[in-house]
Amino acid sequence: MTVLTRGPEELPAALVERGRRRPVARIQDGWRIDDEWWRDPINRRYYRVMLDDGSLRTLYHNLADDRWYEQSY
User: What is the number of other CB atoms lying within 10 angstroms of the CB of residue 63?
Assistant: First the structure.
């Protein structure tokens, strides 16, 4: 999965999965986690997004390695 971003804040604008572009229709929520500074620091920006087909995804940008991931529950 690749996340395409927009603007200086690098907000998620679309996902690319298996060669198919899936636009983000709306960002429902966003939050940041900075934790475990004493061991292996976690620095992530999370976004709950609605795609253009109405499906919901939770994505996060790992600031330590500058990569995007999908949160699985």
Answer: 15
Report whether 27 contacts 13 (CB < 8 A): no
| Sheet containing strand 42-51, strands side by side | 2-6, 11-17, 20-35, 42-51, 56-62, 67-70
The pTM score is: 0.89
54 DSSP assignment: S
Could you report the per-residue pLDDT of 15-37, keeping only the tens digit for each?
999 999 999 999 999 999 999 77
Q: Domain segments of the chain: what residues?
A: 2-70
